[in-house]
Amino acid sequence: MRWRRCGEDAALLDCDSLDQMRAAHATVLAARPAAVVDLVPGARSLLVVGGVAAVKALLDGADLTHPPAGEPREVTLDVRYDGEDLSLIASDAGVSTDAVAELHTQAVYTVAFTGFAPGFGYLTGLPPELRQPRLESPRTRVPAGSVGIAGEFTGVYPRASPGGWRLLGHTSATLFDPHAAPPALFAPGDRVRFRAVR
């Protein structure tokens, strides 16, 4: 791991892996150093705003091979597996479209980090059979609620936006509501399950 200064009161921790970042994030959340103002997890990094010295001291002696024990919040989303790329996903995986839905719903996912758009969670735990590249040419508009896959991640588009993930279905769940508390349905560390509906 390597620390990089970001302005006067923040530092970016470059991690060796997504799992190490998740462990570092969970460790800091569990300890809750008073001086920490914000934590922003990424795929291989953790931005610490405020309390950098306290976080460095905390992580120097921590086991970052796995997150601290705790009971994560669990969210279940109903999904219609009727996405524009469902046949492409099935063909590239060498399975039927029904098998794609079955593989996707059997896994339990973890919100590793959020980004791209408010409420968009990058979910890990995608079965190896479904790990596929992004589309060669991104769409200019992906409908809100679209469930997609890209690389090792699956996720749900919280609002209509451009995007290059392969779409396997959609949900009617609200992923982001600025008037709700909290506004985002997903937070790092949450567990997510998908349930197929007709």
Description:
Its EC number is 3.5.1.54. One of its GO terms (molecular function) is ATP binding. It is elongated and about 50 Å long. It folds into 2 domains: 2-60, Gyrase A, domain 2; 74-196, Cyclophilin-like (Cyclophilin). It has a 4-stranded antiparallel sheet. The chain has helices spanning 18-31, 52-60, 86-93, 97-106, and strands spanning 2-5, 10-14, 38-41, 45-49, 74-79, 109-114, 121-124, 139-142, 146-150, 153-156, 161-163, 166-170, 191-196. The longest helix is centred in the N-terminal third of the chain and has 14 residues, at 18-31. It is α+β, with helices and mostly antiparallel strands and 198 residues long. The chain is 21% helix and 31% strand.
Topology overview:
Layout: E1 2-5, E2 10-14, H1 18-31, E3 38-41, E4 45-49, H2 52-60, E5 74-79, H3 86-93, H4 97-106, E6 109-114, E7 121-124, E8 139-142, E9 146-150, E10 153-156, E11 161-163, E12 166-170, E13 191-196
Parallel strand pairs: 5-13
Antiparallel strand pairs: 1-2, 2-4, 3-4, 6-7, 6-13, 8-11, 9-10, 9-12
